[in-house]
Amino acid sequence: MEQYxxxxxxxxxxxxxxxxxxxCYKQRKNSKYLQLGQEYDTAYSALFAASREKVISKSxxxxxxxxxxxxxxxxxxxxxxxxxxxxxxxxxxxxxxQDGTVTGFEGRIKRIxxxxxKALA
Length: 121
Prior knowledge:
The protein is mostly helical.
């Protein structure tokens, strides 16, 4: 968390926030970490965009991973913020990212919708 707050520049801030999100994701069964992690959905999306722009300006063929979007969508889903989770998946799809599963972010959206429907039933 301290590295994120002290980060200078979009790339460094993105990497630090990604580490924070990753730790929250690992410990998401602890309500404190679940709450903290899912609060970064908007900040992460903006930082990813800024970081991506900087990286592409230096290395136009750079490839990006969808780890942050995947972990945040899970945190939001687990916190009952289904619309935020779906929005994160859609943003990842816009960037052409993958989540490491066979069905990708599209399949993740379907699973989130199913969880939402079950929670509302």
